[in-house]
Amino acid sequence: MSSSTERRTDGRGRTTGSVLSGLAVAVGCVLFLGGFVWAALIYRPYTVPTDSMSPTIAVGARVLAERVDGSEIRRGDIVVFKDSTWGALPMVKRVVGVGGDKISCCTKQGRLTINGTPVEEPYLQGSGPASPIGFKAKVPTGQLFLLGDHRSDSLDSRVHLTDGDHGSVPRSAVDARVDARAWPLGSVGVMQRPATFSALPGGTSQPGPVQPITLAVVAGAVLILVGAAYGPLARRKARRRG
């Protein structure tokens, strides 16, 4: 009797190889479909309609935004929000200030300051100052101060400085936090939390589960392909032996 793994059976005429291939396909389906279901429960896809977040997010790009409560938002987060004062349409901006912060721009070096501390903003479009126009604002408690990364082409908190909340929006206006770019293919990637905000009180937020979800989907697809390929390969090998 042959000792090869391919010829061993489970007592019902099936080889060990076919059993393992079936198991691989089954596990792969669970991971693949489970990953998509997991993502659907946690993330929402959005299309960014303007150039205001360039170069971080280009106009027309698709992003995945994690459903979160506004209380979880930290400085540096890119959020999807909706506020009646801003037009009651979903908008995508970066949080640079939270309740109690004093925001000012710009220093002689062209930097934004938060409570008097200059911050590096490597994500900005161009090499000029952090804002083409100077401004100052104090963020009310429970509010968020929002700016685009393309400061010369962004209608953000600076435009609403004369509003009652000094250009800020309530945390409750936040629908989701952008966690990754999903399209176009050349820009796909997880959104990094800016290190410049990590030393400030409150630090930066933790990324959502986009990476483990991606790994689950990829691993599931690989298992399905490998398991499905076993049958044709085994038959081809058997024909060669015959």
Q: What is the 3D shape?
A: elongated
Helix content: 10-25%
Residue-averaged pLDDT:
87
**Oligomeric status of the shown chains?**
single chain
The number of distinct helices, counting runs of at least 4 residues, comes to 2
| Beta-strand percent range | 15-25%
Write down the Rg. 25 Å
**Element string (H = helix, E = strand):** HEEEEEEEEEEEEH
Which regions have little confidence, pLDDT < 50, spanning 5+ residues? 1-6
Question: Major β-sheet, in short?
Answer: 8 strands, antiparallel
Q: Kindly name the structural category.
A: alpha+beta
State the distance separating the first and last CA atoms. Answer: 17 Å
Total number of beta strands: 12
Can you describe this structure in just a few lines?
The protein is α+β, with helices and mostly antiparallel strands. Helices cover 24% and strands 23% of the residues.
Secondary structure: elements and pairs:
Blueprint: H1 16-42, E1 43-47, E2 62-67, E3 78-81, E4 91-98, E5 102-105, E6 112-114, E7 117-119, E8 135-138, E9 143-147, E10 169-170, E11 174-183, E12 189-190, H2 210-241
Antiparallel strand pairs: 1-2, 2-11, 3-4, 3-11, 4-9, 5-6, 5-8, 6-7, 9-10, 11-12
Helix pairs in contact: 1-2
Description:
With 242 residues, this protein is α+β, with helices and mostly antiparallel strands. The protein has 2 helices and 12 strands, in the order αββββββββββββα. The protein has helices at residues 16-42, 210-241, and strands spanning 43-47, 62-67, 78-81, 91-98, 102-105, 112-114, 117-119, 135-138, 143-147, 169-170, 174-183, 189-190. Strands 1, 2, 3, 4, 9, 10, 11 and 12 form an 8-stranded antiparallel sheet that branches. A 4-stranded antiparallel sheet has the order 7-6-5-8, with no helix packed on it. A hairpin with a 6-residue loop joins strand 5 and strand 6. The relative contact order is 0.21.
